[in-house]
Amino acid sequence: MKHMSKWFVRWASIVLAIIAVVCSASVAHADTVLQSPGYKFEYTDLGGGGLNLSSSPNYQSVLSTTDAAIGTSNSSNFQSAGGSQTTGDPALSFMVDTGTSSFGTFSPTSAATATSTFSVSDYTSYGYAVQIVGNTLSNSGNPIAAMSTTDISRPGVSQFGINVVANTSPVVFGANPNHGQFGVGSAAPNYATPNNFRYVNGETIVTGPKSSGVTTYTISYLVNVNSLMPGGEYTTNLALVCIATY
User: Fold this and answer.
1) Cis peptide before 90 (omega within 30 of 0)
2) In which band, very low, low, confident or very high, does the pLDDT at 215 lie, cut at 50, 70 and 90?
3) What tens digit of pLDDT does each residue of 79-113 get?
4) Which residues partner with 9 through β-bridges?
5) Nearest CA to 220 among 128, 101, 93?
6) pTM
7) Taking Cα atoms as reference points, which of 203, 167, 207 lies closest to residue 186?
8) How many angstroms separate the CA atoms of 114 and 132, rounded?
């Protein structure tokens, strides 16, 4: 009778590291002076508000002394915010909020789950994309199979997959993107279906279509193992790559 090793398979940690957050692109700037042979505006701001005063020796616009208008307007592809004048230079901010996660002890009869979070804010670019890069969990050359096609949890089958939405199976875990007050963005189609998981090295997992405030994303991790999996610690290091789009 074949002797089987005692089950003590543990995932020590999964570390998410920032690789790159900046993508340069040439940006065309419009002429800042409105003029014709018969007139010329020194500034493109017309009316009260902003940093440029509307005044003469005999009057001054009340709104020129402070910025009184705030708020946002948006469509499916663009978003603008009223208020103080700011730089027109694009800025992309990315942070791994929870970078280390542990599954505890694996079992061939039930799935193991874990989560981690990251945040993105995007100023004046046309959007962003976040890719995940790295190999599946392994122990001394014994890998847990990455889910190259989208599938549900199957206890007893070697599986490693993720999604970026809230799940109710195999347990309640994960969360949908949290847009806060001004955030936009969503899970990429391959990672947007609750209770379905996938992992392909280098795939895009979230996208934002336009300028955005802070959006917080939760990655849900799923692991299943089979009864012949060698005991020991299974680890991996994954990287998130955040790229601005123009």
Assistant:
1) no
2) very high
3) 565 555 555 566 788 899 887 889 999 999 999 99
4) 232
5) 101
6) 0.70
7) 207
8) 16
CA separation, residue 27 to residues 11, 43, 89, 244 (Å): 45, 21, 9, 13
Phi, psi of 96 (to 5 degrees): -85, 110
Going by their DSSP bridges, the two strands 232-244 and 9-18 should be labelled as parallel
The number of residues making up the chain comes to 246
Token pair of 23, please?
């993508």
**Predicted pLDDT at 244:** 84
Contact (Cβ atoms closer than 8 angstroms) between residue 73 and residue 101: no
> C-alpha angle with apex 229: 225 to 235, nearest 5 degrees?
75
Contact predicate 171/129, CB 8 Å: no
| Residue, of 140 and 79, whose pLDDT is higher | 140
For 85, residues 6+ apart whose C-beta sits below 8 A from its C-beta are 50, 51
Residues 2-44 have pLDDT tens digits of 443 344 444 444 444 444 333 333 333 444 556 677 766 555 4
Domains of the chain: 9-24+91-244 (2.60.40), 34-82 (no CATH)
| pLDDT at res. 143 | 96
On whether the CB atoms of residues 245 and 142 are closer than 8 A, the answer is no
- Taking the C-alpha atoms of 152, 176, 131 and 73 in order, what is their torsion angle to the nearest 10 degrees? 150
Residue 8 to residue 107: CA distance in whole angstroms: 8
Q: What are phi and psi of 169, to 5 degrees?
A: -145, 135
Average pLDDT estimate for 172-187: 92
